[in-house]
Structures are given as structure tokens and as C-alpha cells.
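FIELD: query
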Amino acid sequence: MSRYRGPRLKKIRRLGALPGLTSKKPRVVSDLRNQLRPGKKSQYRIRLEEKQKLRFHYGLTEEQLLKYVCIAGKAKGSTCQVLLQLLEMRLDNILFRLGMASTIPQDRQLVNHRHILVNNHMVDIPSYRCKPRDIITVRDEQKKSKSLVQNYFDSSICEELPKHLTLHPFQYQGSVNQIIDSKWVGLKINELLDPYQRKV
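FIELD: result
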């Protein structure tokens, strides 16, 4: 399992808000580096930053992102929209959107430690692709599993749940109703740039 171990606030100052990477917020809101470098950003830099947002928000390596880009390129429709749908339907991201942990790395740890069931079957692969009508529950056998998730429920700020998800907090259960619509994607990214038409 590979994960980013470097300074997270540095990435947020550089790329903007990345709620999946960390729940912390930097003291300096504006990007000082961009203020010190006046002038127009190159197209390469803009595309690179959009790609890096995807990588760090969803916790992917370059190889994993490239695989998703290949799958999205073969599908019908806009490559960028299909790619975002694929990333949003990952199990670790679904748990994050349901509020079962404060960041995607914490959700990945829940899945790796076998605290999560999908359709009453244990799943320990964070990249598992959820489908409509999947039911995601926290294991009943271990009280530790429910106590971990309850701590996240208590400490998290209530945000509007996307329409493709339903949460039953008292049953420690969530369900996927449909494929996510592009307007409910949790990361602000400029889709019109389509940074996947060329390799960056």
C-alpha cells in the first residue's frame, strides 16, 4: 500500500482545498508562492496542478491514476467526467462522503483493517468500485469498529450528503443509490481543461 507521507498543508497551500487529504486548514489562506511569481501560468502548469489535485485528494499514485485514465478513455462520454465518476465510486471515497472518517486515508485504514462490509461481504480493498444498490455497513462482530465510526460521526460537521448516497447513522450503514452526477463531485477541478488529452 502506497500513501503520501509528506507535508500535507504544503500541498493545500500550493493546490487549494483538498478535503480528502487532510481536515487541517493552513494559517495562511493565500498562496504566497503565486503572489511572488507574477504573470500568466503556462498551460502545462495549469494541467499539472489539476492532475496533482486528483492525485492528492483521492490518495493515488501516478500508476493508479494512469490506469483510471486508460479506463475512462475507453468509455463513452467525456474522459474527465468518466474519470471523476470512477474515482468518486471508490469504496474509500464513498466512506469519506458518508462521513465515516474525516479523511480518505482514514477510510482506507478502516477498509484495510477489515472494519467494513459491502453487501454483507468483507472487503479489504480501498479501491473496490462500488455499484448502485450496494449496501455498506460497519462490522457488528467488533465493537471497536462501531466505536471508531461513531467518533467520526460525533466529531464531523454535518454536510449535505450527495444524492447518490443514503446514510443510516444509527445502523452504521450507507447505500449507493446511483452513479454520481458530475455536479456532486467533492473536488473542485476545472473539467474544461481536460488535462488527460496529453500526458503530464
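FIELD: remark
Residues 19 and 27 are 16 Å apart (CA to CA).
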